[in-house]
Amino acid sequence: MKTYITALKPIFVLAxxxxxxxxxxxxxxxxxxxxTTSATMVSGTSDLIxxxxxxxxxxxxxxxxxxxxxxNNANGYDIGFYPDCSGSGAPLKWEMESYSPTTGAIVAHxxxxxxxxxxxxxxxxxxxxxxxxxQSTASAVWDVNYLGVWHLPNGTxxxxxxxxxxxxxxxxxxxxxxxxxxxxxxxxxxxxxxxYLSNLSIASPNSITYSLWTNIATxxxxxxxxxxxxxxxSTASPRxxxxxPYSDKVLYWDYGNATGNDGRVSTNYASYMDAWTxx
Length: 279
Description:
Structural class: mainly beta
Order of helices and strands: EEEEEEEEEEEEEEEEEEEE
Strand content: 35-45%
Largest sheet: 6 strands, mixed
Distance between the termini: 22 Å
Helix content: under 10%
Strand order of the largest sheet: 10-13-16-17-18-19
Number of strands: 20
């Protein structure tokens, strides 16, 4: 079984069909639009199975009624996702990472049982209704293969909570704040000594995939930029430590026991400075 640690998933470009006439759907929503993912955006030669599709869009109709839209709840509780716009059948599983009631902008992660690499994929996005909570939970999107998922929303107030059922929330060490991210939120720069994110309850498996978005300014390269620390029990236990990048503009991943030289993976990061990069 492959295990994943991830901060964010890659983005897909989405197309939205026009607003249909008002309808009272059997699932309790009032409106629906079709969200289309182009097959050309799916890499590889096979379909993706149980893929958390990141839906990023802004639509005036998704503003709240008070802001001339059609959504009733200021938290976006009456926005949901189904396989199509029939309004029948079981809903999809989704996590609403962020919602703006004034602009109708959303960042959502929708679990697709199958995402085709040969045919465009469509889902129904419903909105408008009387819901007091989301009709799906974040942990339903991320399966047992994910050790942790940290979105770091919302760009203003830093949150390092884990979206998986594991609840492996990160500890915010030092004076770190929220900052704009590539998808939603992020964190201010970390020096890796007094300012970093950590979790000491993760036992790293033999095989692991780790991914995140970074944007490191050249002027900050000397800062060290070590920022993420995962271990099982203490800082001396088998761990994963990131330098993103270090002062020599090399991205390092250290792994194994902190008291020895168990292993290091590195790559020259100089050409990726001053821009958002998916690592």
